[in-house]
Amino acid sequence: MLGRRRGAGASEERARDPEACREAALKLLERARRTRSELALRLCDRGYPHEIVTQVLDRLAGVGLVDDSEYARAFLAERWGRRAAGWRRLEQDLRRRGVAAEDIDRARARFRDERGDADEVGLAARVVAQSVRRYASLDPRVRRQRLYALLARRGFESEIIEQALRAVPDSTEEQARGSAHTRRTRA
Fold first, then answer.
1. What is the number of domains present in the chain?
2. Tens digit of pLDDT for each residue in 106-132?
3. Which of 58, 39, 65, 51 is nearest to 15 (CA)?
4. Same domain as 19, residue 56
């Protein structure tokens, strides 16, 4: 019983130690890139006081180890094109991770500067092309509504959706029949 109190007191002392908090933050950063708010949440959950966590994160940000703008840029680079999603969806994902709007804007600008191929219309058209078979048997008007809704759920803006639907010819029914024909001939 006495040992537990000492252990509890020692961990309480350790929780007030900024150096221990810094070590815990560095261990978290070793495992994966994290946003400032995610680090703050995890450190507070481990019992470090908010003041010490803020102090430690300011220090880590000062040396460039915690940078939400860079986190957002890396996130965009990783996610772009992997599973086609519009900017709106990607921004929502970043906001959910605690990245501020200014950091998202900076990251998006840097991402576009680095990669000139940030063609959102092309991504949306790719989603349409991949979904043609699924909606092939539908009336063209209903097919267009479903494709529009699919793209909207993926975070594409209405202007992008319209351009993508125009970019993919209305012969999507023919493409779907062609892929169905290909499947039958393979079988």
1. 3
2. 998 888 888 765 678 888 888 888 887
3. 51
4. yes
Asked whether residue 100 falls in the same domain as residue 131, the answer is: no
Mark whether 127 and 179 lie in a shared domain. Answer: yes
Q: Answer yes or no: is pLDDT of 39 > 90.
A: yes
Same domain, yes or no, for 178 and 134? yes
DSSP assignment of 63-95, as one string?
Answer: TTS--HHHHHHHHHHHHTTTS---HHHHHHHHH
Residue range 84-93, pLDDT digits in tens? 788 888 899 9
73 lies in which domain range?
A: 68-114
Q: What is the pTM of this model?
A: 0.68
Tokens of 65: 């180890």
- Please tell me whether residues 84 and 101 are part of one structural domain: yes
- H-state helical runs in 16-157: 18-31, 36-45, 50-62, 68-79, 87-96, 101-114, 120-131, 140-153
Do 55 and 6 lie in one domain? The reply is: yes
pLDDT in tens, 44-81: 999 999 999 999 999 999 999 999 999 999 898 888 76
CA distances from 38 to 22, 26, 44, 47 (A): 15, 13, 10, 15
